[in-house]
Amino acid sequence: RLNLREQLIREVEIIPLEVVCRNIVAGSMSQRLGIEEGTPLPRSIIEFYYKKDELNDPMVTEEHITAFNWATTQELDDILAMTVRVNDYLSGMFGAVGITLIDFKIEFGRVWENDFARVILADEISPDSCRLWDTATGEKLDKDRFRRDLGNVIESYTEVAKRLGIMKDMPTVIQGGLH
How far is residue 50's CA from residue 57's CA, in Å, rounded to a whole number? Predict the structure, then answer.
């Protein structure tokens, strides 16, 4: 981040994986395993999905990842360690403002420095890539509002931004009009 409006972006070689960290059962995990949404997990679970839209991003194992050279074992170790750190940070940050981090999706990439590649986070973290529930009420404050046609998507995202102190109470601008 250079200032409030600018950030420095580096070109990366994207690793073709979506990394999902789950703290509470929701979404596809609930459907896949038949476990009720909202069930706390005994520990965070990290899942990998192969980034291939035409295949609907299938779940893959570490064995697939290394066998097909999508990432090395060292890169996987780095990805897992960074994902755990991101989860710890986000869980604390959201928890402090009354929001439960249910799960999130992130992607990683390689930055090349001569012949050496380093893995870095190469994705946004927003209510579009996280499941966020109000800790007291369980109200969904994330993209599920759109996915499940619950309405109030902008209001929910605004609520998250306000709680985090990113946004003050201001009118919302939608398609050129003030509302």
Answer: 5
